[in-house]
Amino acid sequence: MTVEEYNYCVDEFFRQCLSFYPKNIRDVDKAKDIVQDSYEKLWIKVETVCLRKSQILSFTTAYHTMIDLLRREKKFGDYNTIKHETYSHTEQYSDLNEILHEAIKLLPETQRSVIMLRDYEGYTYEEIAEVTGLNESQVKVLYL
Q: What's the number of CA atoms in the CB half-sphere (13 Å) around residue 30?
């Protein structure tokens, strides 16, 4: 597909897509995002797509993007509908150092040693590997 054919595709099918997806998700801005994403994906494949299949590909891509969005919102919830009071608190606690030490105490011994050597003593990954008998990759995994 050439750039001119791509532009023709966008001009022809953009309105059709925009009339279909807001009805399904009831949010015009999200529908515009879905259609925009589908045309971005079409642009990425512009060299391999022919004009005849561009409408089907646009609708199919937009449909799958919409389904992914709906699943993600169902799983994680929509930011605007979440009750923030449920996931936050208003108590202030300023002794971050105490919280950090309590959290470090909960870690397994090996991971605690790696973190203490890296953050408190300033050792490199290579030096920690020598001290603990682990290889450097294991040290990096335990540190993260």
A: 16
